[in-house]
Amino acid sequence: MALFHRKRTADTADTGTTAPAATAAVLDADPALAALTGDYTIDPAHSSIGFTVRHAMVTNVRGTFGAYEGALRLDGTDPSRSTASLDVEIASVDTGIADRDGHLRSADFFDAESFPLMTFRSTAAARVAGDRYRITGDLTLRDVTKPLTIDLEFHGSATDVYGAERVGFEGSAEILRSDWGLTWNAALETGGVMVSDKVKLFFDISAVAARG
């Protein structure tokens, strides 16, 4: 996933750049980067995955998914070989309104009964500048798979009070829901539609290293 950075200390500098897998240069060996190499599991208790969508042309509705599993494979020697995967349970959608959540789970939108999972599998990553990265992968929703690009800010690594090694980042992306077959809408008398086609996705992730 190319999410590598030295632990933040007063005398630590940022080095190296990351390019997509096809053209990536291998970074010089570095103990700080090598220490991050390994498998990580996303910690749902300290993470958030959700969306924002325009409603009735005048306001935003925000929602999250409460149940998901994700894994990262970080390679500190060659970040282009790092990978990320995410499986989200559609039925766990939560916008704070039970009736609205039920509608989102229905065939009008996600059709959670027929398509219980939304998945993401990374295919490439690149460092943009500093701690900013861009990851590309395949997003599958309602049995439709389309490419998705996520802009990320890496927050570094730390050892928590329980001795677990963590990496953290936040990210965002924009999609058109109609590309994945979510086309339900209703026209407004004043013009426009009830639900915008554009959806903003957000990711706030803490991932824990597997213990050797």
Can you walk me through this structure?
This protein is 6% helix and 48% strand. With 212 residues, it is mainly β. Strands 1-4-5-7-8-9-10-11 form an 8-stranded antiparallel beta barrel. A hairpin with a 2-residue loop joins strand 7 and strand 8. The longest helix has 8 residues. It is elongated and about 60 Å long. The protein starts with 30 loop residues before the first helix and ends with a strand.
Q: What strand order characterises the main sheet?
A: 1-4-5-7-8-9-10-11
Instruction: Tell me the total number of β-strands.
Output: 11
- Outline, from the CA principal axes? elongated
| SS content category | mainly beta
Q: What is the rounded Rg? A: 19 Å
β-strand amount = over 45%
Topology as a string of helices (H) and strands (E):
HEEEEEEHEEEEE
Helix proportion of residues, in percent? under 10%
Distance between the termini: 21 Å
Largest sheet: 8 strands, antiparallel, barrel
Low-confidence stretches: 1-30
Topology readout:
Blueprint (H helix, E strand, L loop, with lengths): L30 H4 L3 E5 L5 E8 L3 E7 L2 E7 L8 E7 L3 E2 L3 H8 L11 E13 L2 E10 L2 E16 L5 E12 L18 E15 L3
Antiparallel strand pairs: 1-4, 1-11, 2-3, 2-11, 3-6, 4-5, 5-7, 7-8, 8-9, 9-10, 10-11
Notable traits:
11 strands; 2 helices; mainly beta; 212 residues
Write a short abstract of this structure.
By secondary structure, the protein is mainly beta. 6% of the residues lie in helices and 48% in strands. The chain is built from two helices and eleven strands.
